[in-house]
Amino acid sequence: MNNYLWIGTLLCTVSIVSNQNVTVTYVEDGVSLYRGSGLSSGCYLNLGCFPYWCLGNISLCQAGFSLTFWIKAYSDVSPDLDPQVLLTSGGHRTNNEGFYIVRRYSDQYTVGVTLGDKHWKTTVRLASGTPALLAISWSETKEGENRTGVIVPDGSSACVVLGQSEYYDQLTGPCTLEVSDIILTNSKDTVYGFESDIDVTQRLYLGCAAFNVNSPAILTDSDRADPGSFCRLRCSQLSQVYALVSNGSKCGCTNSVGATNTTQCDGKWSVYLVSHVKVSHNYQLTLEWTPQSKRNYTKPFEDIVFNTSVGYNVKVVYKFTFDDGIIITTSTPPVSHSWMTPGQHTLTVSAQIGVVKLNASVVVNVQDVDEGQPPDLIGLTVTHGQSSFNAQCNLTVIDDLSSNCVLSYGNGKTSPTFYLQENGSFTFPSHTYDMAGLYSISANCINAYGHKSAMVSFVSRDLRTLHEYVTPLRNYSTLLFGDQSFFNRLEVSINNEKVSFFLADAKTLQVNAGDMHDASDNLIDVVSEGVLLHRHIVYVRSVLDKPVLIADKTAGAWNLTVKLTVLLNSADHVWLTIDYGTKSAGSVKTFYVPEITGMLRVDDTMFYGNLGEYVITVTASNEVSSSRSQMDISVQIPVFDISVRTRNITSPQQNAAFELRVNSGQVIAEDIFINIGIKYGDGAADQFIFKMSDRNYLGALVANHTYATWGIYRVKVSAMNNISQDEDQTLIQVGENITFVDITATSDRVTVGGNLEVSVVCPTGSNVQYRLDFGDGSVFTFGELNTSYQVVNSSNVVTISETSAVVSHVYSRSGSYKVKVTVSNEFGFMSADLCPAIVVSENTMQTCSTPTMTFRNIQTSADKPLVRKRSVTTLIPVDVVFTCSDNIKPNVTFSWKGVVIENIGVGKVVERSLYTFCSSKLLDNTLKIDPLALQFGLYKLTATVSPMGNDLSYASDSVYINIVQSEPVPSIAGDPVQTIMLYATAIFDISGSYDPDLETDTRRDLSFHLFFMSESLLKVNQKLSLNSLVAQAELLANRTLFRSTTANRFSLYQIGSCFNSTSRLNDDLSTFLGKITFAANNFASNQFSMAVMLWVERNGLSAMTYQIIEIRSSNASLDDLGSLLDLAKNADPDTAIRLLGGAASAILNQDTSSAEAQQKLAEDLTSEFAEGILFKKEHHLTTGI
């Protein structure tokens, strides 16, 4: 086997050097005999084989060898790195010789030499991230580890290789190591590269004359396990460069090396560089122990197994120190130990990895306990009970202590725990098994010191005689429990004749069907060693064929007599049942046939007296099979109704669907057949047979038809059976109605003989015909099928697209012409006029220039239109500038046309003519748009201006205007300041509020918010928005105004304390006809001057008004009482009573000089009551007037 020299890593997580040019030099007796190099592939490189030099053959290194090389290990390598053979000439293999260097834990390197039956090994740590020169010297004179018994090769060649795993695989991945300048000499004393640091002949010997050496320290016993590592650690802590060890027991440190008279020194010595010392680690010593029992203590002299580990694959010597003076040192745990005395005993385990010391300890509880004895005697007997599968057990326990016993019945089930007293106890448990067979019943009894068991066998038997019916080809099968020896001892017999059997699975015993006798009884016995386990009587019966059912229907539609014939093939022991489906007495008949040798024929009749659907069912059955046949019998009903429904379609290419429903879908009998006919109105017809669904109602039938041409068709349907029929009809339109037509022109001014192009848009309608009247007597017609350019005559060319048609026309004389388009199809027509009228002029010599027009102070676009409210008047003035050759400026004419711009889809906008907005040759330069003239939306209004008499000198421009909603108009009837008497009714009439954008239902979608507050808060709250007011106010009531018409939401709020009781206010509150009324005495007594603020809101727009109210008490003057009559006209009788009572009190409190005023007020109040405004019979007023 080859010897190898390796360097590399197994896992190279960061690629530092992917390919390395490595040199190797061999020096023998001071002469360089070989120098070679190679480029590694990844981490692997074979540098050659050298069987005749010390370089590759360790047996030729008579004077030992020295090996040096530079190494740089990168630090980003996991500490759990698998061992890697960095450099080897074969010594790392168990059956090879040579040297090797193995990297472990990313920073620990093991250097070893194997020769014959000897093995030398040491460990060094190198810091990662910086280059280091590693030197190795070896001589066979140093004592090595004995390898006697290990297979050692003879005469094997030696090759120098770097980059190998511990399993001899090549390392081909990217590396985290750099290696260079490998030098090997055949002498241990020639160490190349170290001469400048430590002269071989001038090494420092402890005990000799030395200088600059710190006082040597005596190494402890534990330190002496690796004196070099601990001395290097000590010198590193002292910031010294060299560590010196004498005889493995003393450590000294120095920064320089030098000595004289070295021949006078004695003892073994070592010199170490104090670099790359690392003391941090992740090692952890674990200690586990296993007692002999599960007790929470250990008894004296009981051995305990102790195991320990550091968690890494590294050779470690463990020291086990027991507190009874026993010390065990081993590198191959576990160890066992026992204590002789009870108590809490301690074990301490220590280990050392390089300079790292690890310790772990455990406390063991040793107790000298009298554990007594388990139960003395267990007796278990079992007998078979009087019922099938029943085991009767007798358990006897002889014990000085109390015992707990459990029985296991051998089928996976156990008994409850039995608690038995000392000095002998008995129990008689019983258990019933699921099947016959052989079971092992065991008893296990436990006391405080142990347990004892007993076991017996029990044969479970089926004491019944079972009867079973099987088909001729079915095997007999039964379940049994037992092991293979139990089944080997079984015997099976049929009618006392022994037959063979087999096992279908572990518990299923089967006998072949061929061993049983057809049409007779089969007595089957299963016996185990003379004990009968099973006894079955098996009857073999044939499987019945399906009966054949034949019915002869006679008589009329309203009743039906059925003659029925049933045919059945040969069989025996047959029960034949006929169910005629009427669910009445006599509807089911049963026959028993002991044996059928040929074909059985059964004839029977049944009379049906009621309408409906019936199912006749014939069932033939015996003990092993059942077979059934059915037949439907229909007793029909009259057809009293049929209806047809459909919907219009827009194209002849579409299917027209017709839904047909018979007898209104009412609940009737099932499976009724009805003949249905349908005539589509175009000469085509269909016939259907309609069958009743299985849901007990007549489901809808859908008929489809395709029409060839446009039109309106009359569709007729009929339904009939053999006793009745009914008809229905409907109309269907095949085609689409015309819903919109528009006409526009590229210009409204042309010359005589000039070309005018108009565009007609008709997006809906099928088979549309177009008629264009150009106003000069020319009429042009075309149809929908014209889809390409067509020359109609010398002056008309039409182009038709999918939605529009472009027509050109030439006028032969001047004038103003009204152009009109009419579109029509089979279903209707629609017309539109071109706006404005076309002006045709033959005077091409215009005396005035083309005018320049602007909209005064208005600049718009489609994106930035002029925004105007619908409820206001809009004025659009036009300024015109032009010149004339004769310096006489004529009047300017103004023509207007408008289009509404509509968004018909995502990114799609169309312009449609506004026919209500069209004017021609007006003299007013200002366009006036009255309130409500335009609907909401975006409009483009185009003005065309020209000097009078110069129609072809014209200019056009457009203004975009967006008509938006106006704010609603709030209103509180009455003066800005109102006086309310405290004993009267407070009335706030808000019915005058309206939406100025509406002409009818002017309160539609308005919501009302009425706020009460102290007058002092008015000025502040006037500046707030509606939302801000609502946020700070207290909501007192929600109502609906004008409930039967516009149903407006009304909310009542207060800011501060404005009312005495909000609950009483709610009870008293009335909103009839938009008048908010309640008793004035609901106002808080400390409020004398209040503000009422009304907000009206619609679609996010809102407006506000307010009113000041002054609240007067009941001792008001007669001048104030005059106003109460006006308030009483709007009040209810209850309010009138309160008012009149207060007025009477006021009158009685006046002085005598006011008698005439008192009389006048009393007469007025009495007059109001007489008119029925304030009076009701059930109120009797005693005012003292």
From TrEMBL:
Task: Indicate the principal place this protein occupies in or around the cell.
Answer: membrane
Q: Which domain of life is it from?
A: Eukaryota
Task: Report one GO cellular component.
Answer: plasma membrane
Keywords in alphabetical order: Membrane, Repeat, Signal, Transmembrane, Transmembrane helix
Q: Which SMART domains does the UniProt entry name for this protein?
A: PKD (SM00089)
Q: Where is the signal peptide?
A: 1-19
Its protein name is PKD domain-containing protein
> What organism is listed for this UniProt entry?
Biomphalaria glabrata (Bloodfluke planorb)
Which taxonomic lineage does the organism of this UniProt entry have?
Eukaryota, Metazoa, Spiralia, Lophotrochozoa, Mollusca
**Which gene is the coding source of this polypeptide chain?**
106063674
